[in-house]
Input
Amino acid sequence: MGFFNSVARLLFLACLANHSNAVPTAPPDQGNPPSRRISEVLQPENLHTGAYNDKLSIDVEAHYGTYVNPFPLLLNAVDALATIGIQDLNGRSPSYSFQLTKYPTVVIDVKPGASAADFQNWAASLCIYHGIEDVVRQQVSKEVDINCRWNTIEMVTVSIRTVSPGSKKAASVSASNITESTLAVSHTLQPYFYYVADSVPLDYTTTMITLMYSIMYLSRLDKTDMIPRTYTDAGPHWDSSIVFPGDGPQPPKDPPPFLESGWVIETLKMVPNFMIQQRRFAELGIQFHVDNVYLGGALLQKGKPSRAIPSERYSAAAFI
Output
């Protein structure tokens, strides 16, 4: 993992210093890992939409020879997961094409399986996260196709491609692909980010994978589901987590609004841009405000959470 993180860090610094969005020179070829299959067994509680307790098989096929810059790839993946995550996961879409305006050299295309006209959004979310997490962990900085099957039925294909700077391939997501968000448009989301006094550095790759996992996981909830005292982490390969202490308004004693999953997804999507602007990837305090009402806090931290969550690390008193 050290090689990939070192490359990502160098690319991150290069992108900060050079706003031309030119694709950096590819690092020395580390060899071509074989195409492979990964799978996740989804238990009934993993998705709120039903008892999907069978295997989701994910085939990763590399198109060797074409370098993919991991810096914009992971930024794009966070944006893609958040865009899909605030939709109805049972809703169906014919395709997605994600391409960031500021970092347009990597495109993430999502298409239905060979015999299908569309796909459900939950399949796209799972395929994007698990496929890209595997690609990053295997240190494959190359174009790939990620084919996701449900009980042997091909449901969705995620393709990662490099395009030349200035050759915009497509709009990020066409309006016809997005169903109406369940977030109330009459409310104003006001996130606040801050580094706590003892923030320790986080590497770029681990930070992005942790955000991707958290967004993917929270998108399985209804967008109005309240976030309880909990935490998210992306598993043993990634040494960071996001802690939600549950310190905001609670029903029935308090009136709404409350800390709902939709607000959290929208806020986590903004974290990478904040860190890039600050030129600092480190432990980060997050506050969620809607209509000037404090809904709760969170802490993006190094390591896994302990039983005791030190309140001074996410409270308003921690501002610096």
In short: The radius of gyration is 19 Å.
